[in-house]
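TL;DR need structure tokens for one chain.
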Amino acid sequence: MSLNTNSRRPGTIRLIGFPMDLGAGRRGVDMGPSAIRIAGVSEKLRALGYHVIDAGDIEIQNAEVQEIEDVKLPYLPEIAHACTLLAAEVESALDKNEFPLVLGGDHSMAIGTIAGIAAHCKRQNKRLGVIWIDAHADINIPETSPSGNIHGMPVAVSLGLGDARLTSIRGDAPKLLPDQLVYVGLRSVDEGERALIHTLKIEAHTMADLDKQGVYQLITKAVALLHNKVDHLHVSFDLDVVDPMFASGVGTPVPGGITYREAHLIMEVIADTGYMASMEVAEVNPILDVRNASAEFAADLIASSMGKRIL
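>> reply
TL;DR here they are.
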């Protein structure tokens, strides 16, 4: 295998684990970071020539030792605290010219990841763009969420919408602008989310769009669109975008997702741009997995996103 030499990303990758399932309705994704490590993600990245620093995990109290203060937003104080710690870790990595690779954990992690990136970008006068690869839009606000689970809200929070204890992490201003966000792979969207996506005119590509246009054409168009608008590209990859036939061990499996090869193609196209500067992988759930196959899939996808090729 060879490393794509067009990449301009830093040579040092900092792994940051976010072992949390408090934002989800199903237990188990707190073990995701360990599962991806066991799948050999560090070794795969070192084989590509990167220097890898494993920073360990953000310290998070599990559900068994906590009380739910607000049934509409379960575990909000601990989620806000953990995301604040994560934001500081991500910002510090970028300040040291490292590539932060965050391993989750439920997708509420993106609240912290994007807050940290936004703080760095603000000081460096950079424009942040995000490709959100997910079966779900994760743009609920408390008033529209059917469950109240915070892992369904990180995009809204990053846009400055929702509870102030989350939107204020690492600064009060919105961390992300609607025209600097692109969705890829949507196939399960709540009614309130659908309305907000249309109102904010967010570029959103569903599985139907992928089927009609083709994966290569669509993802190439998406990265080109952002390349003209942003200086820092962040990729937030929820493993449930992949069809459960190929990745069953995810937080919220939904039938009809992308295939094994399509997932790798998406990450290869993004890698070829050379301007992805941070990444997170969310919702790996070993409890629902078979022989750690989904975590191994995630580790291989990370390698593809960092330049691994057949020739």
